[in-house]
Amino acid sequence: FKKLEDFDFNGKRVLVRADLNVPVADGKVTDNTRIVRLGPTMSHIIEHGGTPVLLSHFGRPKGQVNAEFSLEFIVDAVKSAFGQPVEFVKTDWTNVDAAKAQLEAGAKGTIYIMENTRFHPGEEANDAELAARMASLGNIYLNDAFSAAHRAHASTEALARQLPSGAGRAMEMEMSALEAGLGKPKKPVIALVGGAKVSTKLDLLENLIHKVEALVIGGGMANTFLHSQGIDVGKSLCEKDLAETARRIYDKAADANCAIILPIDGVVAWHFEANAPNRTYGVEAMDQTGMMLDVGDHSIERIKGAIDEAKTLIWNGPLGAFELDPFGKGTIEVAKYAAKRTLDGKLTSVAGGGDTVAALAKAKVVNDFTYVSTAGGAFLEWMEGKPLPGVQAIKS
Ligand code: 3PG
């Protein structure tokens, strides 16, 4: 795809697909990472005489104008992130004449933020007419929202086909980091996959066993695998109906020379709450009345040993109930270890997914990994090996 350097922005209005779908509490942005990462694209456009016009969805207003989902609240956060004047552009996306007039009357150096693209049903329908109205607002289209690239929507897909288009800097960085993670990685590669349920990660596991040399399975989903190996996991979270599927993945991995690493011990508690009394058991001798909420110390050591063997690590999903102290210990220790190997120049580490980023933040290592993606669903689909419509559209 084309990059910033491939365009002449002078005197042009540049439609930038951003992902301003940021976490909010009491009307305030609680994590501005997605905004901050737009910085290099914003400054490049402005320094080269162009005017950025940001397009984004926010939440899921289901194709209707709904004040609760207006993007107007984000103006202050964008202003303070970039120190540039920022103007909000209201529209219901049915008629964009007034929006166009506002943009045409605009001052140089101002960043414009358009109203939520999902206020019109054409957005999620990837409607070409809506995309044409969007296209009429600018001269160039850049997608800088990897985290929304798994959606084939008007502002991520159809619009890219109606204007000269390319990738913003954040998208470019994301793609090259992901390429280093799974595209053309330094081998051996180890993948860490955790989270509650196998059912949400089946495609991902099926893809990974053909791409990586070792696959560590943690979190609730490890219990389903342990159960499929004949281990009684007591009251632990376990999708018993997926035992057969887990067994099949296990066998396929062996055929593909991918070593599956399951917990050998687990921290068991009898209540799912912070600071619940707990004890560590070997998985073969689990207490049947409790539930495993984290990997145990022997498992942590084993995972560290496996990381020592790897040159590349990709990570999605926490290894235990990291949000409840002390059951985040496994995730945090492994995160710190991977961060240290990365800082020592021995490991390329790529992580993504909402919970994963929160867990790495808890371990205070977000900046020590080679790359941490802000994407949730898009990161998962990329790990599943699926083509992302938003990326395909700027490639062709
Ligand atoms: C995200 O937050 O993962 C993206 O903005 C996509 O949001 P969506 O799941 O509502 O499409």
Automatic annotation (TrEMBL):
One Pfam family linked to the record: PGK
Subunit structure and binding partners: Monomer.
Protein name: Phosphoglycerate kinase
Keywords: ATP-binding, Cytoplasm, Glycolysis, Kinase, Nucleotide-binding, Transferase
Species whose genome carries this gene: Maritalea porphyrae
Enzyme class, broadest EC rank: transferase
UniProt-annotated binding residues for ATP: K201, E323, G353, G354, D355, T356
Top-level taxon of the source organism: Bacteria
Entry-linked SUPFAM superfamilies: Phosphoglycerate kinase (SSF53748)
Compartment(s) of residence: Cytoplasm
Known pathway: Carbohydrate degradation; glycolysis; pyruvate from D-glyceraldehyde 3-phosphate: step 2/5
Family named by the database record: Belongs to the phosphoglycerate kinase family.
Annotated EC: 2.7.2.3
Gene of this entry: pgk
InterPro entries hit by this protein: Phosphoglycerate_kinase, Phosphoglycerate_kinase_CS, Phosphoglycerate_kinase_N, Phosphoglycerate_kinase_sf
Binding annotation for substrate: D19, L20, N21, R34, H57, F58, G59, R60, R118, R151
Catalytic activity: (2R)-3-phosphoglycerate + ATP = (2R)-3-phospho-glyceroyl phosphate + ADP
PROSITE patterns: PGLYCERATE_KINASE (PS00111)
Record-level Gene Ontology MF annotations: kinase activity
